Automatic annotation (TrEMBL):
It comes from the Eukaryota. It comes from Eulacestoma nigropectus. Keywords: Leucine-rich repeat, Repeat. The keyword Repeat applies. One of its GO terms (cellular component) is cytoplasm. InterPro entries: LRR_dom_sf, LRRC14/PRAME. This is Leucine-rich repeat-containing protein 14B. PANTHER family: LEUCINE-RICH REPEAT-CONTAINING PROTEIN 14B, SIMILAR TO PREFERENTIALLY EXPRESSED ANTIGEN IN MELANOMA-LIKE 3. Belongs to the PRAME family. LRRC14 subfamily. Signal peptide: none annotated. The keyword Repeat applies.
Amino acid sequence: RTTMKSLRFISAEAFVSNAAFARKSLGAVAHDLFPLLFKASYLLEQGEVIHDLVENWPLFDFNMGKLLEATLDYQEDLSHRTCSVCLESCLTGLRDYVLNQSSPYMKKLKVVDLTGIKDVEVQFCKCKKTMGRWARTQLLSKLCSELLVYLQQAQCNPGTFEISINVLIDLFVTERNYELVVQALLKKCSCPLKICCVAFRSDNLTLQKFFYIIKLTDPSLLRKLEIVHNVHLEMEHLEILFNSIHFPLLMSLTLPARTFNVRRFTATDEQMLSNIGEKMGEMTQLTELSMSFSILTGRIQKLLSPLKTPLKMLDVSNCSLNHADMPYLANSFHANHLEALDLSGHDIPELYPSTFFKLLSHCSSVLRSLTLEDCNIQDTNVNMLILGLSPCQKLQEFKFVGNPLSSQALKHLFTFLCELPMLKNVEFPVPRDCYPIGITYPIDDASLCRFDHQKYERVAEELNLILLQANREDVKASTPLFGSYDAAVQETNNELGAYLIKSFKETLEKFATSFNKMS
């Protein structure tokens, strides 16, 4: 597929393709052409030109998302290209913008917005080397610290110290880059480049470090907070967090697994849960909530009813919801607004078929993403599922891996899915008949890959043929056995793996010590 380019864009490409000439000629370029040249340079991965464009940026703001989005000159959106060459050139160019005292342009830049960059699985840049969110956090923090050291040691123009640029970024902090980010945030006042954290993700961090750094980020600006793997945040810690810090602009909250466990609740815990619900109710912008792998049986209403703004995204996968929770969700004011819903890990056909379909009918006019993994959806439930999904005309994504469906049932379902006009992504299970007879669901990790791969390939081809014959080449169908792609996990999997091995080793040592004492 070729994207149309305007004559202006073709000219911009020709100009930047000769890096030496372009860099030498930048002083004669009109200000309003800088955005055009930036996108052309980004497309061609002309790192040196990108650096010089940013170093001499003549405008008040530099917004990556807007600069790379589809434009009349070039209708392809490049914001999903996290090309390492381009992004490193951008950030070093930003540092040199502060240091460059001979630039012919007056320094007007006030805001740099890096939040529009999207991390995706397939990269189209030539260098094939990406710079993910963690690496961007690392590099920006490093450049801010180096900039301060240089300014303190060198004889700089007094005007350099008057430069103040807010750099909006989605920070991603783990144990490995924690110290560097803390130093950059602590010295924010003195540094011309001021890190403004709009979204914060924390993985593999002790609670003490998490509480310290979250206060440094200026939580009053935070729109998205993700506390994910290996941050041992439990309900009492969450109550402390919400009591000690206000998040007035928070729109999206992701909590780690096992934050809540109602099976060991006391009267004090019930009160604590109510307090957390009330605190979330004060977050008037909150529209996205993810609480997967917590045990919330019978407590969804207590947690969600204080919210004053309807949720657009709710992830309660593997939360052991019961007969009280589903009717509350189906009848709550959230139901009519849910654009993304994840109910994975619940036996929907067995436990609450009618209330689930009631919930689906209430959100059908806005629902864009539905995830029903490991929900015990069988062949006998397919017709009901089709009936429930039929009004969901805005559905873009449907994930249902881990369900015991036969090849025949999948073909029947795919024939229907072709009729959903907005559908773009389907994640379907390995058919039940590809596994040995007698396999039990949910399938354990050890048995997950023990299926007839040749038969699966034949079925997958047939399913894709159904899409093809319905002129739905725009729909991507896949079977991610070990979960959907997660850019953040992909980028830091070595660190997470090392942490898990260390935790396992420590557990074994404790067990051995206890065993020796008993002996």
